[in-house]
Write a structure and sequence with these properties.
The protein is α+β, with helices and mostly antiparallel strands and 173 residues long. It has one domain: 2-Layer Sandwich (Herpes Virus-1). 31% of the residues lie in helices and 16% in strands. It contains five helices and seven strands. Strand 3 and strand 4 form a beta hairpin. The longest helix is centred in the middle third of the chain and has 14 residues. One of its GO terms (molecular function) is zinc ion binding.
Length: 173
């Protein structure tokens, strides 16, 4: 995807709009100045305003399998890492299909939440469209298979004990 210099992206660390031409350099400056961002997510204490689901790190993209050392790579909460190119393609494909975003690995069912989308290194207009799309849909809990709004799912998943703890109705028992 070719980006013109006038387009801006939201920095996931300082929430500033940055010209796309300076984006990689700007993100890298955060990594250089904050030692907590260079530990590949191994510290238990993270910078509070930085989502651990999308911390900077280097390694292999789980989708295209390219080694990313000089570029940026993102770690999703499902522990799969993706390069910016694959993330951008995922966002564009999701918007074209009008589908909520899920992990790029076929066998993984992790659905990106609002906080994940806000931290993606994509153009602001794509971010707004994806957030609008997500707010219209409900997310399924992988333990009990019930659907919840994006605002409710995190709290529910923390206390959900799965389908085994559900009481079946008269028809199901």
């Amino acid at each position: 995807m070719e980006l013109s210099p006038s387009l801006k992206k939201l920095c996931p660390f300082c929430d500033k709009q940055v010209d796309t031409i300076n984006y990689i350099e700007h993100i890298s400056s955060h990594q250089d100045t904050d030692p907590q961002l260079t530990n590949n997510g191994t510290d238990t204490e993270k910078k509070e305003d930085c989502e651990p689901s999308l911390m900077l790190q280097t390694g292999e993209c789980s989708k295209c399998l390219k080694q990313i050392s000089s570029d940026l790579i993102r770690l999703f909460p499902c522990n799969h890492s993706f390069c910016i190119k694959c993330i951008s393609r995922m966002a564009q494909d999701g918007l074209k299909a009008q589908k909520k975003l899920t992990c790029l690995i076929d066998t993984c069912s992790y659905q990106l939440k609002k906080r994940d989308i806000k931290r993606l290194p994509i153009e602001q207009r794509y971010c707004v469209q994806l957030l609008r799309l997500l707010s219209e849909e409900r997310i399924q809990c992988q333990k009990c298979l019930f659907y919840f709004s994006d605002e409710q799912i995190d709290e529910h998943e923390e206390i959900c004990s799965g389908r085994d703890s559900l009481i079946p109705c008269e028809k199901c028992s």
